[in-house]
Amino acid sequence: MNIKSAEFLMSNSKVHLCPEPNLPEFAFIGRSNVGKSSLINMLTERKSLAKTSSTPGKTQLINHFIINDEWYLVDLPGYGYAKMPEKPRKKLKAIIENYILGRENLTNIFVLIDSRHSPQQIDLEFMEWLGESQIPFSIIFTKTDKLSKGALLKNIETYRQEMLKVWEDMPPYFTSSSTKREGRDEILDYLDTILKQ
Ligand code: GDP
């Protein structure tokens, strides 16, 4: 897929305020600092497209972008802030869940996982919830430049074993490095395939 245009549309916290659900939508989510903004910028080849989401006040909002006038890209708030007090944490969880359950044109969620880390409960639980809610999702293992090929394969295998405790198989998954611009073609080809279905 060629990215011919990528524009920021809006940020909000309520599903009914999102753009009209008239195009397929792909959302990106992960723990804070997983590399989501960098990945979105790499995919769209726009240096700071996803910057809006890291400006103060916007990190906890649903950010919509329109790509090629063909599909919406959504930058969802990061979850798993270790130090966030209970009240805002619950509010954030509600924003994310209401969006995911209520957004009728949501086609696929990409769950970003830092490829260096062992499986984290918060990510596993989130994906389990997606499964129970019958939301299609895929995994992107990020920051692969930070470890050797061997270590990456080992970590992915550990992830697979962890997921097999709950799932029949791993969902589709990708690896990416925004620094080395790796994984872009595979992810965009996958989007293309889904869009053409
Ligand atoms: P977000 O909070 O999930 O949006 O994460 P960011 O995209 O802001 O990235 C968090 C930090 O990780 C920043 O310091 C990035 O420079 C760094 N980072 C993001 N992606 C990569 C990557 O693929 N490789 C490396 N080495 N660093 C990355």
TrEMBL record:
An annotated GO BP: division septum assembly
Keywords from the named record: Cell cycle, Cell division, GTP-binding, Magnesium, Metal-binding, Nucleotide-binding, Septation
Domain of life of the organism encoding this protein: Bacteria
One GO MF term attached to the UniProt entry: GTP binding
SUPFAM superfamilies reported for this sequence: P-loop containing nucleoside triphosphate hydrolases
PROSITE patterns attached to this UniProt entry: G_ENGB
Pfam families: MMR_HSR1
Domain EngB-type G, residue spans: 22-197
Cofactor(s), by name: Mg(2+)
NCBIfam families assigned: GTPase_YsxC
Function according to Swiss-Prot or TrEMBL: Necessary for normal cell division and for the maintenance of normal septation.
Family, similarity comment: Belongs to the TRAFAC class TrmE-Era-EngA-EngB-Septin-like GTPase superfamily. EngB GTPase family.
The name this protein goes by in its record: Probable GTP-binding protein EngB
